[in-house]
Design goal:
There is one protein chain. This protein is mainly alpha-helical. It folds into two domains: 68 residues, 2-Layer Sandwich (Alpha-Beta Plaits); 96 residues, no CATH class. A hairpin with a 2-residue loop joins strand 1 and strand 2. Helix 2 packs antiparallel against helix 3. The longest helix has 21 residues. The protein is globular, with a radius of gyration of 18 Å.
């Protein structure tokens, strides 16, 4: 993008991107935890707030001619779990949940889709002449996306909790 726009236009687009996203997060009670380049780590207390902020961000950026789309992979065979940060002072009360979470993520990374599947979907999305707003990457992501649309929210939530070995 830098080569395509040139340094000053790229800097302006990046600043617009940052301002639009931060405004959407603020409106939906998001807290920016970290940023690097054009990526952010933002925490929300409710999933609905995160989804609302994402929709609003996409809308604002599209108004300014910035192409925005969502690629939804499921678990992907990566070393993501090896790079997970550990707390400086872990609280004993969370030790069992942390162990279960680590096991769930490790299992998911081993059984996940090949990263080439995600890369192929990203290339397809980025080069489409008429891009969709949302792309799923891999069979599990497609099944989850369909279930999210067709299954009642309470049933879907219970299944996600069960799959991730979370308390009911």
């Amino acid at each position: 993008m830098l080569d395509e726009l040139g340094p000053s236009a790229y800097a302006a687009a990046l600043e617009l991107h940052r301002v639009a996203l931060r405004r959407a997060w603020e409106l939906h009670q998001g807290v920016e935890v970290d940023t690097q380049g054009d990526s952010f780590f933002v925490a929300f207390s409710r999933a609905g707030d995160a989804a609302d902020a994402a929709r609003e961000s996409q809308s604002v950026l599209r108004e300014h001619g910035i192409r925005v789309l969502l690629v939804e992979p499921a678990y992907t065979k990566t070393s993501f779990d090896t790079n997970a940060m550990q707390p400086d002072a872990p609280l004993p009360v969370y030790a069992e949940r942390r162990r279960v979470f680590d096991d769930v993520i490790a299992d998911a990374m081993r059984a996940g889709d090949d990263p080439a599947i995600v890369a192929e979907v990203i290339v397809t999305a980025a080069t489409a002449t008429r891009p969709k707003l949302r792309y799923t990457a891999g069979p599990l992501a497609s099944r989850v996306s369909k279930a999210r649309r067709l299954v009642p929210a309470g049933v879907f939530d219970r299944q996600i909790r069960k799959t991730n070995r979370m308390p009911a």
